[in-house]
Amino acid sequence: MLERAMHFSHTLLKEVITTGDTVIDATVGNGGDTILLATLVGSTGQVLGFDVQETALTTTKQKLLLTGLGQQVQLFHQGHETVASVLPANKDIAAAIFNLGYLPKSDKSIITQADTTLKAIQDILPNLRKGGLLLIVVYYGHEGGQSEKDAVLDYCQTIPQEEYTVLQYGFINQRNQPPFLLAIEKK
Ligand code: SAH
Question: How far apart are CA 34 and CA 42, in angstroms?
Answer without folding.
Answer: 12
